[in-house]
Please model this.
Amino acid sequence: MTARVGVVVFPGSNCEHDVVEAITTVGGKADLVWHGERSLDGFDAVVLPGGFAHGDYLRPGAIARFSPVMSAVADFAAAGGPVVGICNGFQVLTEAGLLPGALQKNRGLKFLCTEVELEVVTTNSVLTRDGKVGDRLRVPINHFEGNYTCDEATLDALIAGDRVVLKYVQNPNGSVADIAGICNEGRNVVGLMPHPERASDPLLGSSDGVVLLRSFLGAA
Amino acid sequence: MTFDVLVEVRHRPGIADPAGATIERALPALGFEGVTGVHVGKAIRFSIEADDERAARGAVEEMCKRFLTNPVIEDFEVTIA
Model:
Protein backbone atom coordinates (compact mmCIF):
# COMPACT_ATOMS: atom_id res chain seq x y z
CA MET A 1 0.00 0.00 0.00
CA THR A 2 1.26 3.47 -0.78
CA ALA A 3 2.26 5.34 2.35
CA ARG A 4 0.24 8.48 2.94
CA VAL A 5 2.27 11.37 4.32
CA GLY A 6 0.75 14.40 6.06
CA VAL A 7 2.69 17.60 5.40
CA VAL A 8 1.78 20.16 8.05
CA VAL A 9 1.21 23.73 6.88
CA PHE A 10 1.63 26.49 9.45
CA PRO A 11 0.97 30.11 8.54
CA GLY A 12 4.38 31.00 7.10
CA SER A 13 5.48 27.51 6.05
CA ASN A 14 6.96 27.70 2.57
CA CYS A 15 8.47 24.32 1.69
CA GLU A 16 5.30 22.24 1.92
CA HIS A 17 4.74 21.94 -1.83
CA ASP A 18 8.37 20.97 -2.40
CA VAL A 19 7.96 18.19 0.16
CA VAL A 20 4.72 16.97 -1.43
CA GLU A 21 6.42 16.92 -4.84
CA ALA A 22 9.47 15.08 -3.52
CA ILE A 23 7.42 12.49 -1.62
CA THR A 24 5.39 11.90 -4.77
CA THR A 25 8.58 11.57 -6.82
CA VAL A 26 9.82 8.74 -4.62
CA GLY A 27 6.52 6.88 -4.79
CA GLY A 28 4.53 8.10 -1.81
CA LYS A 29 1.31 10.00 -1.51
CA ALA A 30 1.33 13.32 0.32
CA ASP A 31 -1.39 15.69 1.46
CA LEU A 32 -1.21 19.09 3.11
CA VAL A 33 -2.54 19.31 6.67
CA TRP A 34 -3.53 22.76 7.99
CA HIS A 35 -2.06 23.55 11.40
CA GLY A 36 -5.54 24.00 12.86
CA GLU A 37 -6.35 20.31 12.36
CA ARG A 38 -6.61 18.29 15.55
CA SER A 39 -6.30 14.84 13.99
CA LEU A 40 -3.76 13.00 11.86
CA ASP A 41 -6.00 9.99 11.35
CA GLY A 42 -5.32 8.25 8.07
CA PHE A 43 -1.70 9.34 7.80
CA ASP A 44 1.21 6.91 7.96
CA ALA A 45 3.91 9.55 8.42
CA VAL A 46 4.15 13.28 9.13
CA VAL A 47 6.49 16.00 7.87
CA LEU A 48 6.91 19.43 9.43
CA PRO A 49 8.33 21.38 6.48
CA GLY A 50 10.60 24.41 6.30
CA GLY A 51 9.58 28.03 6.33
CA PHE A 52 8.78 30.61 8.97
CA ALA A 53 5.90 29.16 10.98
CA HIS A 54 3.88 31.98 12.55
CA GLY A 55 6.49 34.39 11.20
CA ASP A 56 9.11 32.90 13.54
CA TYR A 57 7.85 35.51 16.01
CA LEU A 58 9.45 35.35 19.46
CA ARG A 59 11.68 32.43 18.34
CA PRO A 60 11.49 29.96 15.45
CA GLY A 61 8.96 27.33 16.45
CA ALA A 62 7.96 29.05 19.68
CA ILE A 63 4.38 29.77 18.60
CA ALA A 64 3.96 26.88 16.16
CA ARG A 65 4.24 24.56 19.09
CA PHE A 66 0.82 25.81 20.27
CA SER A 67 -0.90 25.09 16.94
CA PRO A 68 -3.70 22.55 17.45
CA VAL A 69 -2.04 20.06 15.11
CA MET A 70 0.99 19.79 17.40
CA SER A 71 -0.97 17.83 20.01
CA ALA A 72 -1.83 15.36 17.28
CA VAL A 73 1.81 15.27 16.16
CA ALA A 74 2.90 14.54 19.75
CA ASP A 75 0.36 11.70 20.01
CA PHE A 76 1.37 10.36 16.59
CA ALA A 77 5.04 10.40 17.63
CA ALA A 78 4.31 8.79 21.01
CA ALA A 79 2.54 5.96 19.17
CA GLY A 80 5.71 5.35 17.16
CA GLY A 81 4.62 7.07 13.95
CA PRO A 82 7.43 8.43 11.76
CA VAL A 83 7.83 12.20 12.04
CA VAL A 84 10.48 14.32 10.37
CA GLY A 85 11.00 18.03 10.88
CA ILE A 86 12.99 19.75 8.16
CA CYS A 87 14.68 23.09 8.90
CA ASN A 88 11.93 25.19 10.52
CA GLY A 89 10.21 21.87 11.25
CA PHE A 90 13.29 20.83 13.27
CA GLN A 91 13.05 24.10 15.19
CA VAL A 92 9.36 23.42 15.88
CA LEU A 93 10.15 19.90 17.16
CA THR A 94 12.75 21.21 19.62
CA GLU A 95 10.44 23.96 20.88
CA ALA A 96 7.67 21.39 21.27
CA GLY A 97 9.98 19.20 23.35
CA LEU A 98 9.78 16.29 20.91
CA LEU A 99 13.53 16.60 20.34
CA PRO A 100 16.14 17.93 22.78
CA GLY A 101 18.30 21.03 22.39
CA ALA A 102 17.75 24.19 20.41
CA LEU A 103 18.77 25.88 17.18
CA GLN A 104 20.60 29.16 17.73
CA LYS A 105 21.75 31.73 15.20
CA ASN A 106 24.46 30.60 12.82
CA ARG A 107 27.99 31.25 13.86
CA GLY A 108 28.99 34.23 11.74
CA LEU A 109 25.53 35.84 11.64
CA LYS A 110 24.92 34.87 8.03
CA PHE A 111 21.83 33.37 6.50
CA LEU A 112 23.20 30.29 4.74
CA CYS A 113 21.76 29.11 1.45
CA THR A 114 24.13 26.59 -0.06
CA GLU A 115 24.72 22.93 -0.69
CA VAL A 116 26.52 21.00 2.03
CA GLU A 117 27.90 17.51 2.35
CA LEU A 118 26.33 15.33 5.02
CA GLU A 119 27.57 12.10 6.51
CA VAL A 120 25.18 9.39 7.63
CA VAL A 121 26.11 8.65 11.24
CA THR A 122 23.52 5.99 11.99
CA THR A 123 21.07 4.01 9.93
CA ASN A 124 18.97 3.35 13.00
CA SER A 125 16.38 6.05 12.36
CA VAL A 126 13.28 6.47 10.20
CA LEU A 127 15.18 8.86 7.93
CA THR A 128 18.35 6.85 7.32
CA ARG A 129 17.36 3.18 7.49
CA ASP A 130 18.03 2.66 3.77
CA GLY A 131 21.42 4.38 3.89
CA LYS A 132 24.84 3.18 4.94
CA VAL A 133 26.90 4.57 7.78
CA GLY A 134 29.51 6.87 6.28
CA ASP A 135 27.47 7.66 3.17
CA ARG A 136 28.15 11.19 1.93
CA LEU A 137 25.07 13.09 0.73
CA ARG A 138 24.96 16.47 -1.00
CA VAL A 139 21.89 18.32 0.29
CA PRO A 140 21.06 22.05 0.43
CA ILE A 141 20.74 24.09 3.61
CA ASN A 142 18.76 27.32 3.85
CA HIS A 143 18.69 28.79 7.34
CA PHE A 144 19.69 31.53 9.76
CA GLU A 145 19.05 29.68 13.00
CA GLY A 146 20.56 26.27 12.29
CA ASN A 147 23.35 26.17 14.83
CA TYR A 148 22.37 23.18 16.97
CA THR A 149 23.16 23.47 20.65
CA CYS A 150 22.35 21.57 23.83
CA ASP A 151 23.82 21.06 27.28
CA GLU A 152 26.67 18.61 27.78
CA ALA A 153 24.52 15.91 29.35
CA THR A 154 22.15 16.01 26.37
CA LEU A 155 25.04 15.84 23.91
CA ASP A 156 26.53 12.89 25.77
CA ALA A 157 23.14 11.14 25.70
CA LEU A 158 22.71 11.83 21.97
CA ILE A 159 26.13 10.41 21.14
CA ALA A 160 25.96 7.46 23.56
CA GLY A 161 22.46 6.63 22.31
CA ASP A 162 23.53 6.71 18.64
CA ARG A 163 21.00 9.49 18.09
CA VAL A 164 23.08 11.82 15.94
CA VAL A 165 21.62 10.86 12.58
CA LEU A 166 23.47 13.14 10.17
CA LYS A 167 26.48 15.36 10.59
CA TYR A 168 28.11 18.02 8.44
CA VAL A 169 31.37 17.04 6.77
CA GLN A 170 32.34 20.72 6.95
CA ASN A 171 30.43 22.51 9.67
CA PRO A 172 28.71 25.52 8.07
CA ASN A 173 26.93 27.06 11.06
CA GLY A 174 28.73 26.22 14.29
CA SER A 175 26.52 23.31 15.35
CA VAL A 176 27.90 21.41 18.32
CA ALA A 177 29.62 18.16 17.25
CA ASP A 178 28.86 19.07 13.59
CA ILE A 179 25.28 17.91 14.15
CA ALA A 180 22.95 18.30 11.16
CA GLY A 181 20.17 16.01 12.38
CA ILE A 182 19.15 14.02 15.46
CA CYS A 183 16.43 11.59 16.47
CA ASN A 184 14.44 10.90 19.62
CA GLU A 185 14.92 7.86 21.84
CA GLY A 186 12.24 5.99 19.89
CA ARG A 187 14.18 6.76 16.67
CA ASN A 188 10.87 7.62 14.93
CA VAL A 189 11.17 11.40 15.27
CA VAL A 190 13.98 13.03 13.31
CA GLY A 191 14.88 16.69 12.95
CA LEU A 192 17.41 18.02 10.47
CA MET A 193 18.35 21.43 9.12
CA PRO A 194 19.21 20.36 5.52
CA HIS A 195 16.42 20.00 2.96
CA PRO A 196 16.31 16.48 1.44
CA GLU A 197 13.28 17.50 -0.65
CA ARG A 198 15.50 19.94 -2.51
CA ALA A 199 17.87 17.14 -3.43
CA SER A 200 15.29 14.78 -4.87
CA ASP A 201 16.04 14.99 -8.59
CA PRO A 202 19.21 15.39 -10.67
CA LEU A 203 17.61 18.48 -12.22
CA LEU A 204 17.85 20.14 -8.79
CA GLY A 205 21.59 19.54 -8.70
CA SER A 206 21.46 16.50 -6.45
CA SER A 207 19.28 13.50 -5.87
CA ASP A 208 21.13 12.45 -2.73
CA GLY A 209 18.08 13.25 -0.61
CA VAL A 210 16.13 10.43 -2.21
CA VAL A 211 17.66 7.78 0.07
CA LEU A 212 16.38 9.76 3.06
CA LEU A 213 12.90 10.21 1.62
CA ARG A 214 12.72 6.53 0.65
CA SER A 215 13.79 5.52 4.14
CA PHE A 216 11.08 7.71 5.59
CA LEU A 217 8.41 6.25 3.30
CA GLY A 218 9.63 2.75 4.09
CA ALA A 219 9.22 3.43 7.80
CA ALA A 220 5.64 4.60 7.30
CA MET B 1 -4.03 45.62 40.64
CA THR B 2 -2.28 46.22 37.34
CA PHE B 3 1.48 45.85 37.15
CA ASP B 4 3.75 47.00 34.34
CA VAL B 5 6.19 44.28 33.43
CA LEU B 6 9.52 44.31 31.62
CA VAL B 7 11.04 40.99 30.65
CA GLU B 8 14.61 41.15 29.43
CA VAL B 9 15.66 38.08 27.47
CA ARG B 10 19.37 37.40 27.21
CA HIS B 11 21.55 34.70 25.71
CA ARG B 12 22.80 32.26 28.30
CA PRO B 13 26.55 32.30 28.97
CA GLY B 14 28.33 30.39 26.23
CA ILE B 15 25.57 30.86 23.68
CA ALA B 16 26.77 32.66 20.59
CA ASP B 17 25.65 36.27 20.24
CA PRO B 18 26.77 37.07 16.70
CA ALA B 19 24.65 40.25 16.61
CA GLY B 20 26.40 41.60 19.70
CA ALA B 21 29.81 40.69 18.33
CA THR B 22 29.05 42.36 15.00
CA ILE B 23 27.87 45.59 16.65
CA GLU B 24 30.95 45.62 18.87
CA ARG B 25 33.19 45.32 15.83
CA ALA B 26 31.28 48.09 14.00
CA LEU B 27 31.34 50.74 16.76
CA PRO B 28 34.99 51.76 16.33
CA ALA B 29 34.24 52.63 12.70
CA LEU B 30 32.08 55.48 14.03
CA GLY B 31 34.73 56.55 16.47
CA PHE B 32 33.26 54.85 19.55
CA GLU B 33 36.34 53.26 21.01
CA GLY B 34 36.61 51.16 24.14
CA VAL B 35 33.20 49.49 23.98
CA THR B 36 33.25 45.87 25.13
CA GLY B 37 30.75 43.23 26.20
CA VAL B 38 28.01 44.14 23.71
CA HIS B 39 25.08 41.76 24.01
CA VAL B 40 21.86 41.87 22.01
CA GLY B 41 18.74 40.50 23.65
CA LYS B 42 15.04 41.15 23.63
CA ALA B 43 12.77 43.31 25.75
CA ILE B 44 9.13 42.33 26.19
CA ARG B 45 6.77 44.77 27.91
CA PHE B 46 3.20 44.20 29.01
CA SER B 47 0.71 44.82 31.81
CA ILE B 48 -0.73 42.13 34.02
CA GLU B 49 -3.59 41.97 36.51
CA ALA B 50 -2.67 40.27 39.78
CA ASP B 51 -3.52 40.42 43.49
CA ASP B 52 -0.07 41.63 44.44
CA GLU B 53 3.44 41.99 43.07
CA ARG B 54 4.48 38.55 44.24
CA ALA B 55 1.62 36.91 42.35
CA ALA B 56 2.44 38.99 39.27
CA ARG B 57 6.09 37.96 39.43
CA GLY B 58 5.17 34.31 39.85
CA ALA B 59 2.92 34.38 36.80
CA VAL B 60 5.51 36.24 34.69
CA GLU B 61 8.30 33.85 35.65
CA GLU B 62 6.08 30.93 34.72
CA MET B 63 5.32 32.40 31.28
CA CYS B 64 9.04 33.08 30.80
CA LYS B 65 9.93 29.47 31.52
CA ARG B 66 7.17 27.99 29.41
CA PHE B 67 6.91 30.37 26.49
CA LEU B 68 8.73 33.70 26.44
CA THR B 69 12.21 32.18 26.59
CA ASN B 70 13.87 28.97 25.52
CA PRO B 71 15.76 27.85 28.63
CA VAL B 72 18.26 25.92 26.51
CA ILE B 73 19.70 29.13 25.11
CA GLU B 74 18.16 32.06 26.99
CA ASP B 75 18.01 33.60 30.48
CA PHE B 76 15.56 36.25 31.62
CA GLU B 77 15.22 39.05 34.13
CA VAL B 78 11.84 40.36 35.24
CA THR B 79 11.27 43.95 36.38
CA ILE B 80 7.87 44.84 37.80
CA ALA B 81 6.64 48.37 38.44
Observations:
- The longest helix of chain B spans residues 53-68.
- Strands of chain B lie at 2-11, 42-49, 74-80.
